[in-house]
Amino acid sequence: MKASASQLAFMGAFLALCGLGNALATQAYTTSSTYLRAGPDTTFPQIQRVPYASTVEVYGCTTGYGWCDVDYGGERGWFPGNRLQFNDHGRRGSITNLAPLLGLMIMQFSVQDYWGNHYQDRAWYTDQNRQRFQNWQPNNRHGRFQAPFMQQNNPFRPIVPVPDNGTGQRK
User: Does domain 20-171 have CATH number 2.30.30.40?
Assistant: First the structure.
């Protein structure tokens, strides 16, 4: 049985999505020089310094866009979301305004999974460090806003973000 052109196109798209890794990355620019970290908090080990105005690939962010999982120069790590700027059809904007429009994934962080995939060759990849961060909980220190609520009459224009009181509820 021969596959039609539309069936082949569908299968190609499906296989591309199964590879998720680079296919869903979104490009962003850093707005300050900051350390890439091994987890979404300043208590995690530093990977390397990312200079101001650098291009990074963003794979997703924590709830509230406080921290984003990025790749910089082949190094994978977490970068503060409020220090990223995105480009959407020629206009640059902050993460709180453009992330929902760009379809950035909201990610959960697991030390075992993330470190196991990216840091097994690092000196600080030890049982002691993994246990230290095993029960880590996000404090969303850098994320001051929830994702913007969208206006009903124009889904492409976010309204002003609503401050988050730390519980995921509006103030």
Answer: yes
